Amino acid sequence: MTTTLFSPYTIKGVTLKNRIVMSPMCMYSCHNEDGKVENWHKIHYAARAVGQVGLIVVEATAVTAQGRISSRDLGIWSDEHLTGLKELVSLMKEHGAKTAIQLAHAGRKAMIDGEIIAPSPIAFDEKMRVPREMTKEDIENTIQAFQQGARRAKEAGFDIIEIHAAHGYLINEFLSPLTNKRQDEYGGTAENRYRFLSEVIDAVREVWDGPLFVRISASDYHPEGLTVEDYIEYAKRMKEQGVDLIDVSSGAVVPAKIDVYPGYQVRFAEQIRQSVGVATGAVGLITSGLQAEEILRNERADLVFIGRELLRNPYWPRTAAKELGVELEAPVQYKRGW
Ligand SMILES: Cc1cc2nc3c(=O)[nH]c(=O)nc-3n(C[C@H](O)[C@H](O)[C@H](O)COP(=O)(O)O)c2cc1C
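# flavin mononucleotide complex -> structure
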């Protein structure tokens, strides 16, 4: 049987052997709190490459130390991070996976010691701290940090870069009117709220001509927040700026109840893909081969991002292949048991 899930996919000259993407997932495993790759990362990511995942997106990796979600996040704010990242990339590639890294800044959701920054001085909830409102200089410095992160990602050998603009972290805080109350050119209108992401994309594009993904939260799940219609407009701009794929997640901008069910975010990926004509990734409770195949075959998304199912089962591609009746080549060492 031929399936779309197990057919190759080429994006801007990078060919993935199948459409299975490991969704970025923080491991909070930098025990020395220096953002450097440790044994855990090497074992964890290489195992999914052995498991035949087509593209592995390395977890949210902080472009500044201040922008970490926790002190144990991976980091890319210094050239000192390069040695570990290079090794990580080569381990994943050695086992046939293509590699991406998610460049991130946590904004007001940073849970680190010291000052935290965001577009406006509003805390996420009563348990979180009030961030300092970013000055123009902070904005410029942070855009530079994303650019430097992209330069290092290139040097480390990653095939793809993903900008984290979802889940209520810094870029998402600029986009949403719930978190951005600025009076300057970075706040107010939709265009102004998009300015920060726009400048980050342009800065990254100056140093990176490979495939560029942006992860978004397509709904704030709040009556005054952004909806998928707003993101269709933003996605048009991203496409114009040379973004190759929108990785469509949702929520976490403000505390809100989300109705979660199998494939609960797929309709957003589908709407954006259809309305904008841009490639999308679908994510969120996609757990079976049949479900993934349905999404791809009905052209609801171009890639499927698998999160927790790949934590439970590093060999999920094999499970999905069996379900779909596909012969998946085994790593040679495992042939007798495959
Ligand atoms: C342990 C864990 C860590 C996560 N870290 C990130 C992250 O670093 N960046 C991100 O964009 N999403 C992150 N997510 C969200 C996942 O990438 C994914 O979007 C979400 O889990 C829904 O997909 P799933 O139902 O297949 O798990 C994380 C999720 C989990 C479970």
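# post-check
DSSP finds ten helices and 13 strands in the chain.
The longest strand covers residues 55-62.
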